[in-house]
Amino acid sequence: MKVLSLIIPLIALAVLRTSAQQYTPPTQYMNLPVFSNPAAATLSAEGAAMASGRWQWAGIEGAPTSFRAGAHLPIGKADLQGGLLLRQDKMAVEKQTDVTAFVALPVQVASETYLSLSIQAGFQEFRGDYSSLDAMDPAFAYNEKRSSALIGAGLMLYKPGRFMVGLSMPAMPVFDGNSLRTPAYYHLLAAGLLPLEGDFQLKPAMQLSYSKTVLFKADFSGSLIYAEQFGAGINGNNYGEFAGLLNFYQGRIGIGYSYQFATGHKVARAFTASSTHELSFRIAFGKEKPGFL
């Protein structure tokens, strides 16, 4: 029965692997840029903590889930930020976990404009618990475990409250024998805040993600923000996925939710339960009042 209950996500996984893998960053990437580019940590001078959860193909047992968490704090009297990031992705009986530490330092390059540089290092572990499907079936009579060191770097040019644009390679696995599993990713992230009439602002954003063995992904978003507290918008990408975005900030706390549905990808067309839910949370430390950029 367990094999039957997991057959749909396993078939979907096989489809993705035979063509090319997908990359599924959070739809709230513009509000949690540290996950894509740790250099963005210097946007929060007093530090912050954040987390996001993603539940894909809601209603299907063994469907992909993704959890991200992180925190960073200032180091010493300089503007240096140091932090930790955790990422765990699950699908059926497969699980991948990344843990990295990073430091980020901004340099002022113009009036109220900064260039931040980050470097990071950590490890990655992959586990495939295939024997749990059916220990008596020779096809599932093995498990897989791989690990690798990770390194990464990022650049972010920004003007607080106005714009940010950054290029990053947040986690590149390092070869150690046959343990390499996930290729390096490269991200180009940009977002801005445009004033409108009254208390309204428009926040356009995009993120381009590339890897040699993963389908290129282009995400585009737009949100209408009211009184720097409420935000509502839409997100779309070249996989044929669209999402509605909601955000709320009160004091030092920010909460986000998105509902994503697929229209174009062949895996999405194969299953009727293709909706994805995502929740995000962020809290700023000190006296800082977080904003939408």
From TrEMBL:
InterPro entries registered for this protein in UniProt: PorP/SprF_Bacteroidetes
Signal peptide segment: 1-20
A Pfam family it matches: PorP_SprF
Keywords, comma-separated and alphabetical: Signal
Name this protein carries in UniProt: PorP/SprF family type IX secretion system membrane protein
Species, as recorded: Candidatus Pseudobacter hemicellulosilyticus
